[in-house]
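= Protein in question =
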Amino acid sequence: MRMFKISLALFLVLLLAISSQLALAGPNVKGGPIKKANWMKEPEAARLNEMRPKAPWIESWYIPDGGYMNNGGFAPSAPIDHIDEATKGKLTQPILSTIEGLLSTQDIKVKFDKKHALKGATGGWKCATFTPTEATGRNMSSRYGLADTSNFDTWQIIVIDAPSKMKAIMSPSQDDHAQIWVNGEKWHNDSTWTGNPVDVDFDVEIQLEQGGNVLLYRCGESGGHDYANLHLDDATMKKVKIYPTKAAKTQAAFFAEAASALSVGPAGKLSTSWGDIKTSEW
């Protein structure tokens, strides 16, 4: 019995040590943001293929009231900035991931042409909540009341209110093609589905500035399951506030609760004119 207790104690110590090393493993994708010339390149890191059902998955998002439908498959669709086309150049995906771009969605409609618009969509934005689990494999189609569909793109936004400038790790899970911008810059591009709504292939290091940080997550779908999920690392989640919350059901409610974060944004973004942003991004 004494030897069993000693063996058990050693096993628990070893398990604790392994768990600590895993917690400190850090990102496997660093060096961002991605330069524009490399926007469509895949991460070079080996895929983690880690199931994380208990990770702090973000559940509430600010989304357009319709996706870009009949996209011809995510591969030909992915390089095209449909936000630019739907707003006649008033917005682009990089600009939409800035405070100025986000605020402008209160006035600028994102209206896809008749062939690609979801029936009944007005071009406005709303809030939606979807809880990532191993069984929730269609949160992109279900957010629009569709039982299942193929060949479409979706966009979703959160505001991350950080107490100071800091590094963070974002971990996406998607089916099929994920593209993520933060504060006007692209940080992630992965065209391979992760295999499960809570399966993570890449832990991506990103830069957060003090105040409000806008994260735009685009996902392109071709067929089968469709999901776009994301969590941040535990240390970051303990320090930041994320909007919208589950309490926000409308566009107005989202902007009301995120008002303080949106009044203090990344250095250099708020002081830059709208015209300068447009010129610098394109």
